[in-house]
Design a protein that fits this description.
This is BHLH domain-containing protein. Keywords: Growth regulation, Nucleus, Transcription, Transcription regulation. The protein is mostly helical. Helices cover 71% and strands 0% of the residues. It has helices spanning 7-31, 43-77, 87-94. It starts with 6 loop residues before the first helix and ends with a helix.
Length: 96
Amino acid sequence: MSSRRPASRATSSTMSEDEIITDLVLKLQALLPHLNPRQQPSRAQASKVLKETCSYIRKLEKEVDDLSGRLSQLLGTIDPNNQDFDLDSIRSLLQI
C-alpha cells in the first residue's frame, strides 16, 4: 500500500486546503484594524498577517491586564455598604 495519493486527488486537496487557508487569513486580516482587508494575501503576506495577529492579541492582552488592574484598584476603594457609586471616579480610573 502506498501512502501517496494520486496526483489529481492530491492537487485538488491541496487547492482546497490553500483556499481554506487563504479564506482564514483574509478573515484574520479583516479583524486587524491597521491592515488592508481588501488585499489578497500571498504566502509572504499571510505570514505577515499571522505575525500581526499574534502581536495584536498580545497588545489586547496587555490592555485587558491594565484594565483589570484599574478595576481591582477601583473595587478596592468602593465602600461595600454605600450603594452610591461615583461614576466620574470609575470613568477616570478606566479612562473612558
